[in-house]
Amino acid sequence: MCRKVLRHSLKSVNRNSKADEAHQDYAFHYRLDSESTRAPVFHHRLAELGRAVLESLLNVVVPQSSGEDVKVDGFRWLMDREQSYPLFRNLDKPSAFSASGKPKGNQHLEPDKGDCPAFQSVANASLYEPRIGLLAELIESVLDLVEFEYQGKPVKVDGFMLKDLHDWTVPSTGSPGEVIDYAGGRCSCDCVFCCNKGNPPLVAARDNVSRAAGEDFEEIKTRIEYFSPESGLALFPSLGTVYEVTAHPFFLAMLRKLRAKTSRPFRITTNGNNLTPEMVAELAELKPIYLYFSLNSSSPLRRQRLMKDPHPQTAINALPLLRESILSPMLLSSSPGHWAR
Ligand code: SF4
Prior knowledge:
Largest sheet: 3 strands, mixed
Strand order of the largest sheet: 6-1-9
Number of domains: 2
Shape: elongated
Strand content: 5-15%
Helix content: 25-40%
Distance between the termini: 26 Å
Bound molecules: iron/sulfur cluster
Radius of gyration: 24 Å
Order of helices and strands: HEHEEEEEHHEEEEHHHEHEHEHHE
């Protein structure tokens, strides 16, 4: 869909929503890997640039010849028939390793602290949107060769941000859960059986785990802005671990904004720890909602022991309230029920 049509369709989707208010997009920032931490395959910088660009491209495109996929593992310059260059440091693992031999983007997994706004993780973004990884590699390769200037003076560049988010929409199922999960960066319990505890670092490291709730919400508002069930489009997803969405301070504000955008059911997995009478009353205003309720035990003592729930009675008391409010609760007996995107 061309940008003009997309803009139009997004506008028409928002016609009846509060999102008509002036909205400034959340800035998706990514940190660049500095020269000192990247080990080149070739010390000849131009050869390394060609290699890095081609390797990065092969992470997002498949070369073809006469309509058939072809594999390539090297290149040569047009003007030099003699010299050829291998593309990959390790031919057994051509696409899984970067020039430094480390898993691609792993250097970006640690949350960035003290930056405002926070950098997102290139590695996590690249799992669903590898073109972001491609851009990072291209810019890093160019920075090995040139210095950027502003008004005649060299400037240091340590990151980049996506310019027009309309360029970064992808097909969407239109399920509100695609947005709701982004509120799941924290949890109000600490279950002994939590599946998130066993996640490998690449999955477990939600890049924004340390950022402020307000900044989470800025991203969520932008995701809602670009979420268009009618057009089947949404902003590219990023990998994260989903804990307890109701624990997010902006959980209800997010649902209200989403409800203005779609009448589809909200499917919310919860440990029930935040289902106070006030919360249930607020949720009842936002129906249809399906709650996947991870009660695990109706004994306060057992729930406290299993889930480290500081207020087990809140979840236990919520069940009759939910039935009265017709919020379609579904009980999950022992599953933590918090999904990884
Ligand atoms: S299982 Fe669910 S409720 Fe328990 S700690 Fe994990 S995310 Fe939180």
